[in-house]
Protein 1
Amino acid sequence: MSDLGRVLVIAGGLSHERDVSLRSGRRVAEALREVDVDVEQRDADADLLAYLRHDPPAAVFPLLHGAQGEDGGIQEVLALAELPYVGSPPISCRQTFDKPISKGLLEQAGLRTPRGAVLSQAAFRELGAAVLLDSLVKRLGLPLVVKPARGGSALGTSVVHKAEDLPSAMVECFAYGEAAMIEQLIEGTEIAVPVVDTGAGPHALPSVEIVAEPGTYDYHARYTAGTTEYYVPARLPDPTGRAVAQAAVTAHHALRLRDISRADMIVDADGTPWLLDINVAPGMTETSLLPQSARAAGIGLGDLARDLLSAAIERHRATQ
């Protein structure tokens, strides 16, 4: 048995991404058991904090996706409980989960992001939707991507090729949040680059190239086996491969992230990476990108999770 002690995987929660979170949690827990770690999995429910106080684990691996898991909520609870955990501190999670804020920080770090705008549901409803949307199209052109300003797994995200389809895309987006971020669609190769740090500093794992049918990497394509092709490492020229790896690490630093992250980007025809989103709690399901990338690097998921937990424990000890 591993000398880590008993560790806890938290998965589930009440966000729209609950099912994905449970799948991620089961997979990581199984992988940890395969490397002889004593692991328990629990849901994020009303009994969690009492459990943590009564029988604290040696460390926690939170695998909650969406709100609560990526907005700093669970991280704040674990910090209050004075428990070591894998992942970024609460303030970094909050600013990364808020796409308009993280977009600004990425641009300040010299990274390219698509031109865009943010509209609240209240503004859309009360200030004249037709005029607002017409102004958006005139300013940004078409096609556009509409996505919730806070959220993940492409829920509520639409690609709009015709102006008459923009109102319905906005309504769908508002079903998942109070604000929408509308950006120019960047054409190119869809890439994801995980970044991990088990104690020696953040470094990029092999990039993952995503080829989805019919061309949109939506929720169904992300989590349904066989619907998407992946190439690991991505089929990029060496200079471009180095550029996407550097962009992912730069984003990790710019947002003051810790332990693990994933940068989603488009590489255009000139080889320029455009940052689309940064994820502080990457999925760990059988179709998720980070486990594929780790496997291509020769790293088992159980080994990676164990090393991240070990690093969290050492970091916690150093602050005592």
Protein 2
Amino acid sequence: MFPLRCRQRFILVPPDSHVPTDHPAATAASPSHAGEAHEPLRGGFTSTRFVLVEPSHPGNVGAAARALKTMGFSRLVLVAPRVPLVHCDPEAVAMASGADDVLAAAHIVPTLADALAGVQWSMALTARTREYGPPPGAPRQAVQDACRQVAHGDIALVFGNERTGLSNDDVERCSALAHIPANPAYSSLNLAQAVQVLAYELRLAYLGEGEPGIALPGAGAVSGGLAAGPLATSDDIERMYVHLENALIALDFLDPANPKKLMSRLRRLFARSGLEREEVNIVRGIAKHILMLKGKEGGK
């Protein structure tokens, strides 16, 4: 369950009413942006979550909400924000600048696992090179994967803390990894700016670069000559890893006292494949039989 949120007042602007240019709602209601203000959200726009992990500054959360709304997105998830009621914080509301509805509707959860519950595919944003985790790609390439995966269900883009970014564990939990190729001499990108870059790239990809109504790949799309089955959810994949790890321990292949990087390498291997639900079931079936042969019944 998500915690109760404070109540906020919203100003409803009729489609034909005049709004002063200095009013917070002017941008959304002005004639030049009328199409954007009333653009129906559909497809990937409603199936994409933007997840901020442990954001420190309320202003960045508000600015991120604004970035999402300008690109037609609305699903914001906050993992253990430093300010518990950040969506009510005056600085966050001010920086949202008219995206109060996106900010107020933000879901607040305690862990990244909770934020990814029910997600079919997720992409982590990182500013530094990682030894483990999925292979990194540029945002423009990564969002093409997002377009293919969103046809199967919810997807998520995951952003780290302003100061420390994402932990290795957080990165390994995601299906893909992206890096914004900023100026190497000054690559520090504000959290809300990073959200804006990815939301923009994803918007172009979803709309087919200015072609509204373009069809996204369906669940039965053919990939590499084979009909792709339903993808496994993040929850299913995490349970598979637990099951597989227990089986490897039972085989004495994995020493829990000295695991090294075995599970991290296996996560990287599986992340490259885009696991389908049936494939996860196969791996878990193998793990189950290993545990049965070893006289162990746990690990599910």
Protein 3
Amino acid sequence: MSTRQTRRKSAKLREEAAAVVDDEHHHQQQEAIVVNGNGLTQPGAVASDPVASENIFLFWPNIIGYARIVLAIASLYYMPVHPRTCSVLYSISCLLDAVDGYAARFFEQSTRFGAVLDMVTDRCTTSCLLVFLSSAFPRWAIFFQGLIALDFASHYMHMYATLVVGGSESSHKNIDKTQSWLLNLYYTNKGVLFTLCCLNELFFIGLYLLAFSSPWLSPHLLKSVEATSGGHINPGAPVNTSLLRQMFPDPFSAAALEIARTNKMDSLVPWAIAGISLPFMIVKQIINGVQLFNASHSLAEVDIKMRQEKGLPRKKAKAKRR
């Protein structure tokens, strides 16, 4: 082979090697760029991936979830003195709980963030209403406090057990009939789930309305201004009109109780709401108890297996060897 041909062949090999290096370098650059949900670039994946450019926080089900939070906060603001406005806002917030599920399936936007947001919103809004009921019915405060504790404990334990036993890919709604037929029916049948959750909230709304309508249950919200304030209010007496007082009035002040009496209603409808929804509320609390019991046993079984794998307790193992 001549010297010229050898040089040509060497140059061609160098060009091919340089092309391979450029391709690899370009591929590495593509892999090093990823567009996250907020539109920022981060290392880790291919930028052209359409999934990487999605913003989970702006999915329609999650936007509905944010609207639920706004409505719930507004209902809490009106809760001490405006029962009708509060009940309407609170009810809409609860009903949107079903809408976001349909939106997630329709737009194919079911996410773990959305599921957790939904559950946290449910727990917080119900707890806030129960806190108010504890103030409105102080003799029953321990009952409402117990419901708050049971609600949070059962759902937290259930979610944690689901992650430990089933892994990150599992859903808290995947309950086998062998574990509990009641939980399986509750989580797999959308009609049962919606009915129990809706009527459970409706019972607490009924009690809330009774605080503004039943002198038998809540006389402190319906007695006279003189009896509430401890004396007669003289006309023209100076009144504290600070902005903070106007925005967040004392729910048991004379002025607030006067507003409450103005907004009071007949007790027939609230009693009917509470009476009809009471059995469903009881079933919902039973389900919470069963959920807490099953989750505790699932975690205990995992602990037993882990201890066996580690050879614990070591004292018994040594005794068997002897």
Protein 4
Amino acid sequence: MQVVQIVFSPTGGTQRVADIIAGALGKPAERVDLTSPTAGFSSVHLDEEDLVVIAVPSYGGRVPALAAERLAQVRGHGARAVLVCVYGNRAYEDTLVELEDVASAAGFHEVAAVAAVAEHSILHQYATGRPDSADRAELEGFARRIAEKLAGQNADAAPTGVPGNRPYKQAGGSAMVPKGDSSCVACGLCARRCPAQAIDPASPRKTDPERCIGCMRCVSECPQGARKVSGALLKAAGLALRKACSERKGCELYL
């Protein structure tokens, strides 16, 4: 059995969760990066012998549209899939059921689903430092239970009780559009690394608000710290989420 990762992780939190789960299931033989704007996802073909960890962040309780679009191009060919959604300690709402639908349409056979928490990619005061050691222990325990299922008689049974709604909640646009400030040296790293290609390489201080998905990769990777979101918007969002994010939420497994 070959373990494969298919991950959309602009700022690294979702990748860390995927690494914990996949690493506990077996050494990953391949990693497909759904954030790559140039990868040919239609050339990725799996088969029934593969075990695939498909991990995405939850953006406003939904699968990021760009991740869904790229995952839909992959050919699963009946490969077993562990679906993972990662959220910033608020809620993941319809993310897992939407991921189920996208993965199924791409030909994957779902055998387990996991919801996990990582540090909020915009409001870093929430779920700071997660996944932490407690999360790691919990996720590794989930992986052992998934491996036990795969070795048993119900290996191909779909997980039960996965929360979410169909139709999904309405997806909102991103109001958090980072822009470059005067410390920008126009190195172009943000433009090259932007999953949505929303930054003009010739003028990287500018961001196309229609294309930007608010993933914050440019903010997290700018070597000059020149990419920022409006401080007023950050403050307002922090206050709006304070109650929902105040209590530590744990990881969840559906088998």
